[in-house]
């Protein structure tokens, strides 16, 4: 790996943007909104289901419609940001996300809510890669970039838990609709601030769109996520023709996408981005971390509300130690990354988070929060803080500015697809575990709760295994050292 500054002397000596820290605040606000929306609706879902008359079978589409559109369109969104302009894409994504949120907040039927959530996913697929690409091209000095990525990584790791708290507050003290409508003022502030504070940038040279690649990869990701979602439903399962058919179709389409990208002169995802060993390992670790994290939050919410009888807001507050641990650890990880290099932090983060999952797997029907839940949450938060901060940095090391949007989109896509696949996997393990427990135990007043907890415990154990696998991938593939982290004004790594 070599590091070389390129470009004219004038470009190389250009001073940093004096508005860059204000721009970071705007980008962080937008990223927080996108991350929050992945979980804020979960708390509101029971109320929305009752008011709109949504069946138990169809309620999962409130979550899945967003995941399908977001995960399926992220790579295309990254290329649009590169070619059309990252600031312009950022502003359009924010405005569109607000409009989609208004449609969802005012929905009168279940179908309207599903459509609004899908539309949120479409604009989120523009917004998320544009945000990270702007961060990459705005902060070019090594230490400043590390701090900026520390903020971004903390939001990526802790924002989901904040969404649970905010969702509980809005649902309990206002109305479930505000879990969507709250995005409107946030987006308005971000758009108004972005126009004067964020500098425009775009890729130069070959900026033609890879239409065949965009169609095939979008179809492949949607098919894969849809197949895994169906596999996690009791009505279908892993052996159904629908589940296996969509998963197989997704795999085939993604293989075709690789062939298209190898032959294309203007690929949607240049294969040099994921085939770099360290970056490739980071993307795999990102997928696995997304799977383990979202699965944990989902079943932890069920445990709080169904078994422990917590209210929505109490359930959200009970998750706060995880967020606090992520935020506290992110600062430490940012400072240590230039001393130890990213690999030790990432590997340790995966193992610490896995140990936290293992602690949660020991819960019971009568377990105390302080002794059985809190330690696990803190360990998971520490682990995610150590993992996500260097992960965001390594995933973009050596990426040319021309490819910043595509590389940024790939980070978000791996986390989103990982979350959808992980939720389906853990839901399947949970369901089979509950069923076997009920069949093997004599009826009793507490049997149902005991079966639920047994299922949660099984899911947490699998979550621990997934996070431990992420650590193993980091140890095997990531080779970036502290000396190889960007330190110059303009950095290209070969």
UniProtKB/TrEMBL annotation:
Bilayer topology annotation: Multi-pass membrane protein
UniProt entry keywords in alphabetical sequence: Cell membrane, Membrane, Transmembrane, Transmembrane helix, Transport
Main location per the UniProt record: membrane
InterPro entries assigned to the protein according to its UniProt record, in alphabetical order: MFS, MFS_dom, MFS_trans_sf, Sugar_transporter_CS
Bilayer-spanning residue ranges: 21-41, 61-78, 90-108, 114-137, 149-170, 176-199, 211-229, 235-260, 281-304, 316-338, 345-365, 377-397, 409-430, 459-478
One Pfam family, short name: MFS_1
Compartments, as annotated in UniProt: Cell membrane
Protein name: MFS transporter
Organism, as annotated: Motilibacter deserti
């Amino acid at each position: 790996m070599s590091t070389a500054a390129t470009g004219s002397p004038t470009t190389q000596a250009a001073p940093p943007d004096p508005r860059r820290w204000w721009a970071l605040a705007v980008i962080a606000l937008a990223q927080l909104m996108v991350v929050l929306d992945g979980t804020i609706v979960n708390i509101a879902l029971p109320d929305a289901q009752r008011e709109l008359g949504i069946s138990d079978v169809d309620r999962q589409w409130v979550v899945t419609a967003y995941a399908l559109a977001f995960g399926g369109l992220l790579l295309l969104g990254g290329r649009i940001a590169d070619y059309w302009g990252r600031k312009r894409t950022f502003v359009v994504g924010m405005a569109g996300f607000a409009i989609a949120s208004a449609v969802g907040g005012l929905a009168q039927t279940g179908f309207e809510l599903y459509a609004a959530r899908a539309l949120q996913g479409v604009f989120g697929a523009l917004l998320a890669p544009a945000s990270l690409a702007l961060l990459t091209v705005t902060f070019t000095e090594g230490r400043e970039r590390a701090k900026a990525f520390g903020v971004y990584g903390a939001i990526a790791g802790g924002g989901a838990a904040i969404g649970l708290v905010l969702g509980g507050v809005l649902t309990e003290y206002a109305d479930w609709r505000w879990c969507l409508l709250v995005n409107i003022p946030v987006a308005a502030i971000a758009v108004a601030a972005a126009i004067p504070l964020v500098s425009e940038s775009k890729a130069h040279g070959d900026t033609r769109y890879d239409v065949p690649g965009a169609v095939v990869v979008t179809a492949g990701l949607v098919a894969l996520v849809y197949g895994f979602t169906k596999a996690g439903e009791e009505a279908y399962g892993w052996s159904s023709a629908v589940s296996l058919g969509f998963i197989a179709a997704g795999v085939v389409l993604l293989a075709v996408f690789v062939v298209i990208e190898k032959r294309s002169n203007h690929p949607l995802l240049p294969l040099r981005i994921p085939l770099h060993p360290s970056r490739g390992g980071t993307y795999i670790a990102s997928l696995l971390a997304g799977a383990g994290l979202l699965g944990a939050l989902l079943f932890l919410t069920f445990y709080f509300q169904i078994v422990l009888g917590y209210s929505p807001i109490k359930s959200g507050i009970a998750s706060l130690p995880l967020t606090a641990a992520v935020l506290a650890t992110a600062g430490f990880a940012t400072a240590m990354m230039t001393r130890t290099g990213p690999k030790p932090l990432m590997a340790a983060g995966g193992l610490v988070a896995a140990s936290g999952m293992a602690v949660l797997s020991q819960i019971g029907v009568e377990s105390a929060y302080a002794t059985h839940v809190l330690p696990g949450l803190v360990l998971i938060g520490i682990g995610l803080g150590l993992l996500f901060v260097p992960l965001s940095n390594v995933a973009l090391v050596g990426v040319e500015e021309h490819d910043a949007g595509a590389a940024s989109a790939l980070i978000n896509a791996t986390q989103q697809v990982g979350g959808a696949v992980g939720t389906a996997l853990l839901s399947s393990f949970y369901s089979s575990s509950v069923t076997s427990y009920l069949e093997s135990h004599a009826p009793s007043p507490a049997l149902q709760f005991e079966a639920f907890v047994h299922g949660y415990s099984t899911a947490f154990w699998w979550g621990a295994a997934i996070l431990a696998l992420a650590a193993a991938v980091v140890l095997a593939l990531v080779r970036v050292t502290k000396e190889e982290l960007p330190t110059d004004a303009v950095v290209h790594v070969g």
